Amino acid sequence: MTLNNYKKWLLSSSFLLLSLSSWAQHNNELYNDGALIKVQAGADVYVMGDVHQMGATALMDHDGYLEVQGNMYSDNLFQQRGTGTTKLINDDVNAGQTQFISGSYAVRGGQAATGVDDGSFYNLQLANDQGVVWLNGTGNVADVRNTVDFNGPGAATANRIITADPSALPTNGAAYPAVFGLMNPTAGLANMLDNTVNTNGNMSAFDNGYVQGKLRRAISAAGGTYGYVLGLEPAAAGAQRGMQYIHLDFSGANNYDVITGYFQTGLDNSFGSQLECSGYQIDYWGGLDHGQWVFDDFTGAGAGDYAVRVWPQDDNFPAKTVWLVTKDNAVAGTADDCGGSPVSLERTGFNGFSQFGLAAADILLAQNKLLDLEATPIENNYIQLDWSTEEEDDLAHFEVERSLDNSQFSFLDQVYAQGNSQLIQDYQLDDYEVLPNVNYYYRLRLVNNDGTFSYSPTVVARLYGETAEENIRIFPNPASGNAQIDILSSQERDLQIRVFDAIGQLIYEQDAQTQVGHQLIQLPAQDWPAGLYLIQVAAPDFQQTKELIKTH
Q1: pLDDT given for residue 467 in this prediction
Q2: Residue 295 and which of 9, 50, 183, 283 are 20 to 30 A apart at CA?
Q3: The model scores a pTM over 0.70
Q4: Where does the signal peptide begin and end (predicted)?
Q5: Is residue 350 part of a domain?
Q6: Phi, psi at residue 27, to the nearest 5°?
Q7: Where are the beta strands (DSSP E) in 65-131?
């Protein structure tokens, strides 16, 4: 059945209906029980009642415009294709009522099922006069493959998608039975038109333009920033309602495929007090006062680094000096990645999904005042680290850490501190184990005599040139357990690693392959007796031997 002239049929019928009474929804339904319906490009189709799409052979090939004044029903067999637009509006029929979508107007699976087992919309416009379109069912009820417009043409107000029956709203996101999805993997918010994202921390004046309940988004394998315009029902300030905006920023390659999120109030994220944010004692957890954002990935085993930025709305947080995003009721992600406000707070270095909350502190335990930290390339040969302290109080030593990605840091060296001083103290360390044209990130771990510690800000330096000395380093050294070999190489190589004890007996060997730059290789030294060991790393054009002291 081709519907390029369906508009004319409805209009001719409408005169007869209007001469008898007002529009009657169930007298003007579009019912497809297994047929192919084609809406041609340029065609306008107006359904003054409900739309039903049922059956394994039911297919809507939709490249035009379909306007529906009633509700939309389907089963999980019906399929939908094309690049057309569907609008839900009730300016002629069902005025003053909400509209719903039921069944499976969705991609039935992950991204690989798009266009294969798929009842999803291409473009969906929302123009209900009550500002509510809701999903009637469980699981993935409705998806769009291109755009959703929360304030479609003819709308009296921006619409909210509710993933539950609005007559019996769940208190929290976990209990919302249905899921709305944006299965366009393009990053950003451009495919969620006329949303009411607000980043000033006060959503009490915004009732619509977001997904109330559960929202899923398709994620590009190449990464990008994905905003989740989700929350709970609107309410007054301080009630943690309205849109609780959050975005996920994927730094690069990942295999998460599709990620579903919701917001849950009163979800405790308490854990043992600990130092973070460069020496602050974390002693406040905002889960019970505000709530947490909960996410699941479609595969259940996705991987890839990402950052989280949150905009908690209408919160009742106490005043605190520093804030951080928590993951799974713990401090995770990049160490000391903290902020001064819960609004627009970001933390990097996460991997894997579950729940995110907020924690904070206003007590700084580390009393040692670091003036500065600088990293300077010297004669294109090595990187010189210089730092100073203005005040030292029971400071034991500095642990210099280095990273190639500003996320994963490893121990480089240790420098003893003056300990107790009210004068400026200067320190220096030279790092010769560097290659040209590589960014090296450095930070200091300030360790106190009682074992507490804090971190410095991160600095970066880079050598520019053709060559650099190749080297290996063993750490920790001395070692009480396992140790690591840090190999600095200017090229890929096949290596042989051999370990000899103090009398020259071979006790361990393994083959390895290096990449350009730094590479860490584990040494299973945990069960080796205390003593001196020689670590030999050899290739046809490269050989070095280092000593390792095992303490016990």
Answers
A1: 45
A2: 283
A3: no
A4: 1-24
A5: yes
A6: -90, -5
A7: 65-68, 72-74, 79-81, 85-89, 99-102, 121-127
